[in-house]
Each structure stands twice: as C-alpha cells, then as structure tokens.
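Case study: Methyltransferase type 11 domain-containing protein.
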Amino acid sequence: MGNCSESMASTQEVTTAVDPINHTTINTNREFHNEESATYWLPKDEDEQKRLTGQHFGCKELFGGNVLNSIRDTLDFEKGISILDDMINDYPNCTYHGCDIVDVTNKVLEIKQFTYKHGNVVKGLPYADSMFDFVHMRFFVYALRKEEWPIAIKELIRVVKPGGMLQITEADPQLPKDSSSIVYTLTNTFNSIAISKGQNIEIAQELESLLSAHDNVKVVQSEDRRCNMSKSAKISS
Ligand SMILES: C[S@@+](CC[C@H](N)C(=O)[O-])C[C@H]1O[C@@H](n2cnc3c(N)ncnc32)[C@H](O)[C@@H]1O
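Here is what the predicted structure looks like once written out:
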C-alpha cells in the first residue's frame, strides 16, 4: 500500500513514455498497456507479474486446480489438446496459446508448445473459428466495460471447437462486513475506480446468464468459492 500511494503521488511530476512496439506506457515507475480502447488499469510490469503469480496459486488452491472437474472429466489432457490458456506444468502434452494486449510471457524460459499472440478480445481474437478444445479466460473484472462482456463471450465461444469447453473464472469483489478493515478500503477503492471506467464489478454473478443466452452453449458447471481475506487464511465453498 505504501508503495502504491507513493507512486500515485509522483505521477504528476513524471513524463509518460509510450513504446508502440511493446504496446507499453511507462508512467512513473510502473508500466501499463498501451491499447487505446482498453479500460484495463492495472500495471503489466514485473511487480504485477509477481502479484499475478501469487493470485494464480491462491486461485488454484481455492478451486483444487486450474480446471473445473467437468472439464477434466470431458477433455483428454493427457492425449494432448489445443488450449487457449497457460497450464503447461499441469498438462505438458498439450499445445498452448496465450493472447493478451501486452506480451507478458516469460522471455527466459523458452517453451516450445506455447505461442503468444497480441490480441484484444473485444476487437476479435487472432484465431480461426473452432480452433481450441479448451479456452480459459480469467480475471477480467477490471479489464472490460459492462457492454464489452457479451462481445468478449461471443468471441471466446467462436474459437472453441464444437464439443470443446470454455471456462471463465472471475473475481467477485464484494465488500467485507467490517468497514474498518484494510481489505474493505482496498476493495472499495478498486471498485470505485472500476465503476468510474464503466466496468461491471458484479460480472461474476452474471456470467451464467450471459453464457446461457447462446443456443450452442450448455453451462455444465458453476462454482462459487469465497475466501475471507480480512481474517487469517480461511477458505470456504
Ligand atoms: C488480471 S490480469 C490476468 C492475467 C492472467 N489471465 C491470469 O489469470 O493470471 C488481466 C489480463 O488481461 C489483459 N487484458 C486486459 N484487457 C484485455 C483485452 N481487452 N483483451 C485481451 N487482454 C486483455 C491484461 O493485459 C492482463 O494481462
């Protein structure tokens, strides 16, 4: 938190540099994406990658894996399928694709079965129809405007093979009861920023109906796991 307010305070004094090649804006000591139409407002630098790594393992623990049971039961990950996501350590036989408005792939590890492509899910993914057995999109609550969600979901469905699976994992940033807690202040601040950008902080609760609106989609599993971050690490389902 200390670092966060320090960098906010210094933003007015520092010139913003734009690097169109790397799709990056460098603002003070944090780096951001440079995709004009996108409302995503979290940084993309090394510190943020560390936070995302922590979030990744927290989420994996909460759900007992990266993939929901129904997907594990339906698709043959051992055989090797085509995936739009990044779970190489879990299923090394598969072919992986990653798509983002910034390239945050690890440049040190060269992973032969992984291909990154620049793309904006609202403008259209850079893939042919029905290309993937499994598509996973995660943590876009602070990335898409309310009206962009149906467009993004339609685009995700377009690239899934008939009989394939789509998983959307989303945070539901509800305020804790105790308004004196730091988690309350943090969540409230994040949500206020998101609302000011036209984003939908309740999207997690609306995903099922948005998906069900498509005739060619059947919702087979919907999971809600809560983690109380105000107290010591208690996990409940
Ligand atoms: C919270 S991060 C989640 C990253 C990763 N999916 C994970 O689960 O750790 C959200 C990511 O979405 C990307 N993003 C934001 N808006 C996007 C858009 N319109 N199209 C594609 N990617 C976008 C951001 O650059 C960022 O890398």
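For the exam, be able to explain this: Confidence is low (pLDDT under 50) at residues 1-15.
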